[in-house]
Amino acid sequence: MSAAAFIEKNKDRFLSELLDLLRIPSVSADPKFKNNVFEAANFVKESLEKAGADVAEICQTAGYPVVYGEKIIDPALPTVLVYGHYDVQPADPYELWDSPPFEPVIKKTTIHPEGAIFARGSADDKGQFYMHVKAFEAMMATGELTCNVKFMIEGEEEVGSDNLDAFVIANKERLKADVILISDTHMISMKDPSITVGLRGLTYMEVEVTGSNRDLHSGTYGGAVANPINVLCKMIASLKDENEHITIPGFYDNVQEVSDEQRQRLNEAPFDLNEYQGKLEIEAVHGEKGYTTIERVGIRPTLDVNGIWGGYTGEGAKTVLPSKAFAKISMRLVPGQDWQVIASLFENHFKAIAPKSVKVKVKTHHGGAPAVVSDSSVGYQAAEAAMEETFGKRPIPTREGGSIPIVALFQKELGSDPILFGFGLDTDALHSPNEHYGVTNYFIGIETIAAFFRHFRKLSQQ
Ligand code: BES
Ligand code: MN
Ligand code: MN
To answer: Which of 40, 350, 386, 409 is the most interior residue, by most CB within 10 Å?
Structure first.
């Protein structure tokens, strides 16, 4: 039996196993789910064993463990390293989900007429890394495994992969591979397959602005003492000018400019602004002057407030002049920018613009480097050929706005080409209520991964 026939025959089981994994609330950000995160690691380890791995281990780190697995069929053959993450984002706000986030259900949508799996982590990243486990199983079962394979599935991606750099550096030899496959990104659409060749970096900050030493009556003191929420809003507003250009001194200093020719190529990707706005129910897009939407997301840095709080937010009205205000602010970075340098530029500037009437504290949460990957490596060519085979159309290279900090570290420490082989769609609602992943995406992903192994072996030996 061919791997493709095996996949077809085992469809129901492949789907129900993914649903079992999705039932485990492995939220890495919230200590309440600690046991579930370990439970998910164990689930991954057992799936690798059942699929036919010779080695399947739970490797302890200073945080949540990395699950490592391997099947070496012949050391002389090329080796594929698969990276993914079994942790998920918090499901909050729960009330905005149409069905409970950890009770997966399959429902039809306009974009997914054959059905999509609704659950936290369905697209990011359980549904996507699990395709690799199932492709591996199918290739093992049918004698079609043509390359050695290693798996490295981590549990802290959604909280910044703090302990992963050390793990990769300590296990360099073991992780040695000819190519790294990562399915944790999007394609343009089912009819326009694409391969991601750029990701943005990230610097994540939190600020605290303090006015008076206690909350005050907003009538007795209002107008005479600084309101830290008002001040914070003004400070945040000043971080961008009228062209949506970031005003932090030195912020753009090392940004690598993209050539006109490259910009033109990026803009040739299929993109319909009306459709984009329609899907988000917005009348207009918003961003840096002089750049298209594709460029704003793919090649330009930006700054966003992720959350802002302080004062009274309960029922009814309470008059109060609060003592403190807070905000979580992230900056997406592009090649040339160093996330730690940006963190200190932000901190210095934020303190410098604070009026004397308030005190400011700035804290760095985490960060990660941007990455650009080759669109001509052997791995890329194999991915291109595999997608062309299953989608019937040659994929195009795109740059995405999200971040996977470990990609740059892989390039630096392991020196092998990472391939961002994602099968999701931008409508999958990652990190949002009602996250979902197309059933068709899941199965075409499994098939395409199996095809990748075939093409990679062939192209590596040419
Ligand atoms: N899978 C995403 C990254 C992603 C999403 C890349 C969509 C391209 C398209 C990943 O799990 C993620 O959410 N990363 C975080 C960064 C991390 C350091 C918390 C992000 O991009 O916010
Ligand atoms: Mn992810
Ligand atoms: Mn994510």
So the answer is: 40
- What CATH number is attached to the domain comprising 249? 3.30.70.360
On whether both 350 and 383 belong to a single domain, the answer is no
Catalytic residue, chosen from 17, 157, 428, 435, is 157
Domain range holding 345? 201-255+301-368
Asked if residue 421 is part of any domain, the answer here is yes
pLDDT at 7: 96
Res. 164: pLDDT tops 90 = yes
CATH of the domain at 444: 3.40.630.10
pTM over 0.90: yes
Domain stops at, among 337, 368, 399: 368
- 84 touches 128 (CB < 8 A): yes
Which residues, at least 6 apart from 145, have a Cβ–Cβ distance to it below 8 Å?
A: 71, 73, 136, 139, 453
Position 61: which residue type? T
209 located within any domain: yes
Mutational test site, ligand 1, from 87, 89, 157, 420, max ligand atoms within 8 Å of CB = 157
Same structural domain for residues 35 and 119?
yes
To the query of whether residue 261 is one of the catalytic residues in this protein, the response is: no
DSSP for 239-263, please give it: TB-TTS-B-STTTTTTPPPPPHHHH
199-208: pLDDT as tens digits = 999 999 999 9
Does residue 281 fall inside a structural domain? no
Residue 309 has pLDDT above 90, yes or no: yes
Annotated catalytic, 92? Answer: no
- Per-residue pLDDT band for 417 (boundaries 50, 70, 90) equals confident
pLDDT digits (tens, 9 = 90+) for 55-67: 999 999 999 999 9
Burial of 280 (0-12, 13-18, 19+ CB in 10 A): exposed
Give the residue carrying structure tokens 């390293």: 81
Question: Are the C-beta atoms of residues 337 and 201 closer than 8 Å to each other?
Answer: yes
